[in-house]
């Protein structure tokens, strides 16, 4: 039985499915990269933690912590990492208690 109305679009069913697959794959890749950028930052000498959006995807989830100046003493002469410089966007403030 033939479809009673002629097709009005130029893309076939197979082409539309392929387009949806590529769009879904792109969205999944974007979602994975976004999740890899969400981290927890503990500021040195502070008891407050922050759920942050890092400037680039990271494999670690928890950064910082310890007493004031701990990173500078253990890494003398090294450039400061993004969580000590403040290059992140705070999503939420978390308390340790």
Given the C-alpha coordinates, what overall shape results?
elongated
Q: Sketch the topology as an H/E string, one letter per element.
A: HEEEHHE
Beta content: 15-25%
Helical content band: 25-40%
Supply the helix-strand structural class.
alpha+beta
Return residue spans where pLDDT drops below 50 for at least 5 consecutive residues: none
Please describe the biggest sheet, giving its number of strands, its sense, and whether it closes into a barrel. 4 strands, mixed
Strands of the widest sheet, in order across it, are: 3-1-2-4
Average pLDDT works out at 84
Give the distance, in angstroms, between the N- and C-terminal Cα atoms. Answer: 68 Å
- Summed up, the helix count is 3
Q: Could you tell me the radius of gyration in angstroms?
A: 24 Å
Strand elements, count? 4
